[in-house]
Design goal:
binds pyridoxal-5'-phosphate, alpha/beta, Aspartate Aminotransferase, domain 2, 477 residues
Length: 477
């Protein structure tokens, strides 16, 4: 049955009680069993940021004249981030709702800048490392910009030489990661940015993940390439507050080396009967709550808080890497630049997706990756206490899969195996679209929770159809 607005408003207890019920089956993020999605800061910090969120919950950052509060918060956050990332005095930027919006802004600003500077470019392209987050694909897709991808080396880095080969006269921007999400590796930014500068191109560093963790890791002595504004050719950086900034969801920053880049991000309409309309980011109305909460997170955490949490997260990541290396049949992907740990199988008898199913059955939230099949862990302070238990469960799962290879052909393992094996991406894209259409179909509330149950079975059917379609196409040639 379709949900309707109740004829009579319900009580607070009733409403909040039902929300709690909705959340009862969500992944458990406060006790370390989830390796992504939530960067749990602990109860005390959570209390602070939720109270701060309420302070500006109704404020609208769209109009900085009406809401000096949100403008002040935004200015402070931009400046604190610029200082952290060694931006020159000219550094400017805006807050956004998240990494995707920051990347949308970076791409549209580069496209608009190119339109103004090089009006003869009709088919703009951007050159990116192949591990760059798909939010950039979304931006390019929406804004009519082509993407050229630079393959990564065995360590997961997109080499400058690859960028040199791909850049052409229609290129308007290059993007590299610090670090990339899949393997947690920092690209060779000094070489890439120098190349971009020599070609007169802007260089964006996607530090959505790393922006608020790498600076602290560097202070703790972790070795990684330079990647922030200390690198001469870096012209913009995105950094998510709602990841290692420990802010609640809905907050990120996009910074530019100077106003000559940021001005192309602004949108102005002067013709409207509603008056002159000016908007700095993708959003129109800009919710004040997440902005206030992000500000409170930075000043409430302080350098001491960030450093101690970064140390715990790093120690956890190192313990995890060490433990995984000691399990026969597994290998770590990429270089240890960050708190992301990704591991793959090194033994043909160990299907990693089958390992994933067993871990999930044991209550772990699991992130599956592809090419090669691998599992992804974002380590936070909250994960520290469970690392030994996780390693023991991984070891047991690897042994179980080796003992019973048929596990690879059952359950979710079969689905993910199929998905990564279907060679026509347009066919698998179609299958996923079908699954999403099912999830958003009219009628009863749909099961959209973690993998398992009818949703996955539907995905399996869609993928099998896709595979059969592909086989019949391939067979008819
Ligand atoms: C999370 C992430 C993004 C996207 O950010 P959202 O907040 O999910 O929109 C982009 N790039 C990297 C490297 C990320 O980790």
């Amino acid at each position: 049955m379709r949900a309707t607005i109740p004829t009579q408003g319900r009580t607070k207890e009733d409403v909040l009680g039902e929300l709690d019920q909705f959340a009862a089956d969500d992944v458990d993020y406060a006790h370390g069993k989830t390796w992504s999605l939530v960067y749990w800061p602990g109860d005390a910090h959570y209390d602070l940021v939720s109270a701060a969120n309420l302070r500006l919950l109704s404020a609208n950052g769209l109009n900085p004249m009406a809401f000096k509060s949100t403008k002040r918060v935004e200015t402070d956050v931009v400046q604190m981030t610029a200082e952290l990332l060694h931006g020159p005095a000219s550094t400017v930027g805006t807050m956004t709702s998240g990494g995707t919006e920051s990347l949308l802004c970076a791409v549209i600003a580069a496209r608009e800048r190119a339109r103004a500077k090089w009006p003869w470019i009709r088919r703009p392209n951007i050159v990116i490392g192949e591990t760059v987050h798909p939010a950039v694909d979304k931006a390019a897709h929406w804004f009519g910009v082509a993407i050229k991808r630079v393959p990564v080396d065995a360590d997961g880095r997109a080499p400058a030489a690859g960028f040199r080969r791909k850049i052409d006269r229609n290129t308007v921007l290059v993007i590299a990661s610090a670090p990339s999400y899949p393997w947690g590796v920092v690209d060779p930014i000094p070489e890439i940015a120098a190349l971009a500068k020599s070609k007169g191109l802007p260089c964006h560093v996607d530090a959505c993940f790393g922006g608020f963790i790498l600076p602290w890791l560097e202070r703790l002595g972790v070795a990684m390439p330079l990647w922030d504004f200390r690198v001469d050719g870096v012209t913009s950086i995105s950094a998510d507050l709602h990841k290692y900034g420990y802010a609640p969801k809905g907050a990120s920053v996009i910074l530019y080396r100077d106003m000559s880049y940021l001005r192309h991000q602004f949108f102005v309409a002067t013709h409207w009967k509603g008056g002159v309309y000016a908007s700095p980011t993708v959003a129109g109305t800009r919710p004040g709550g997440p902005m206030a909460a992000a500000w409170a997170s930075l000043v409430g955490m302080g350098e001491d808080g960030f450093l101690s949490r970064a140390k715990e997260a790093w120690d956890g990541a190192e313990a995890l890497r060490k433990g995984l290396r000691a399990i026969p049949g597994l290998r770590i992907l990429g270089l240890p630049h960050s708190t992301i740990v990704a591991y793959a199988s090194s033994d043909p008898d160990v299907d990693l997706y089958a390992v994933a199913d067993l871990l999930e059955a044991g209550g772990w939230s699991v992130d599956r990756q592809q090419a090669p099949p691998s599992l992804h862990c974002t380590v936070n302070a909250a994960n520290g206490p469970v690392i030994d238990k996780y390693l023991a469960d991984v070891r047991a799962a690897v042994d179980a899969v080796r003992a019973d290879p048929s596990l690879a052909t059952k359950g979710n393992a079969a689905v993910y195996g199929l998905l990564s094996a279907v060679p026509l991406t347009s066919v698998s894209e179609r299958a996923i679209r079908d699954v999403m259409a099912g999830m958003y179909a009219p009628g009863d509330a749909k099961e959209s929770g973690p993998p398992g149950g009818p949703m996955v079975e539907r995905a399996a059917r869609a993928v099998k159809r896709a595979r059969d379609a592909w086989r019949s196409v391939a067979g008819s040639r």
